[in-house]
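Appendix C reproduces, verbatim, an entry submitted by the partner laboratory led by Prof. M.T., so that reviewers can inspect both the input and the predicted structure.
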Amino acid sequence: MTDEPITRPLEELDTDTLLDLLPDIPLWVKCPDYERVDWLNKFVADMWPYLDQAICATIRSMTEPMFAEYIGKFQIEAIEFDHLSLGTLPPEIHGLKVCETNENELVLEPAVRWAGNPNIVLVVKLLSLRITIQLVDLQISAVPRVTLKPLVPTIPCFANIVVSLLEKPEVDFGMSILGGDIMAIPGLYHFVQKTIKKQVAILYHWPQTLEIPILDSATVAVKKPVGMLHVKVVRAQRLLKKDILGTSDPYVKLNLTGESLPAKKTIIKKRNLNPEWNEKFKLIVKDPQSQVLQLQVFDWDKVGNHDRLGMQLIPLKLLTPYETKEFNLDLLKHTHINDPHDKKQRGKIAVELTYAPFREESMKLDGPQNSYGRKESGFYKSSESEVFRGAGLLSVMIQGAEDVEGEHHNNPYALVLFRGDTKKTKMIKRTRNPLWNDEFQFMLEEPPLNERIHIEVMSKRAGISFRSKESLGHVDINLNDVVHNGRINHKYHLINSKNGVIHVEIKWTTV
């Protein structure tokens, strides 16, 4: 009969003994930020035979062109894998940390350890020699950061996987060449270890990343403003007579295709078939290659529908950025420009157009890329003279709120008040944690320095009630930081709310 092992509680151990034990204790025991993920380890273990084949196939495809560069050099005839398998022992995740950010992403930090039994044998044919190189006793310990971004409403609900290392990984292995362990050579082991850590750090140590595309960019692309169209409606000539007195009361509606925003309108010119407006408008452009400016001239009527006198379309791809172009066009009955039956003269309209693209506050610099695309981010800042002058677009994204609580009901929506203009998000019923993701835009002639934007969370009861509306809290945001930095993304505590928080992203883009 064997003796029972002697056990002692941890509090009885001295410091040195505890430090010896700590490396073997999972992170979810030592650090409360890390979660225990036995289910994930079970998943990886069951999937490992298939992951092994998939990873090895990727390794082969990545290394073939690399090996091909050496064929014919240094008397090398061939380089190929004789065996390539990651073995039967899967890596283990000793804890998983989920990081919360204000961005549209999900950040995971798994603590990975792998003491594997791979069978990796590389054969180099050199003249008449056949040299075998075998990797043995592989051990890896790493803490990668895995970011799923951006989150999109298309399965699997994220477009890319971005991987980087928060610290240099611990990699230990042996290398056998022609049956001999070359790592036994004095000094070589430490040199190889140092070189591997350095090379891996160069490739994937944050802020360098490995980006793996999951969804086609065209599938999840969300059109964002890229520029501003300046429109000057100059005049119209020889318009149709629609009134009883042989005249018309014309005005012009203008809008860009692909937008659901209300059309902009000129003033009405009473009893005038040759009106001059000289009015200026600004329209937000999202795709200058496909969008079209639609101009419609109407005759205003006090009663009933307004008669359309004519229309024209101008594709934005005809414009050169920053160059003003004049158009003097015949008005047509409808969009079928080449309709042979539309021969009636409807007059002309004259407009001046200028397309001004937004400046890029930041740009990505492409570094060396592997098959997935390793990227290194760079940053470019506009000069102060560019930031603090000129027209631009103020974009306000109301993402959501947390712990907003009304005394009588909880059907929250948000109001955005700026320069006398009020925007409103959709209402979400019966919740204290609404997610709106509504974006509003303000076109400004100059940067909003020393100005504030007021955001208030409201609740509205459906139906008739004496207490149909109530405020759930508000916040006033100073826009100086937005102008200086180009963007803020922050959660603000709501004033007059016990625990309420609102998540707001604001951008300032100059032209």
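Confidence is low (pLDDT under 50) at residues 362-372, 376-387. Additional entries are available on request from the coordinating office.
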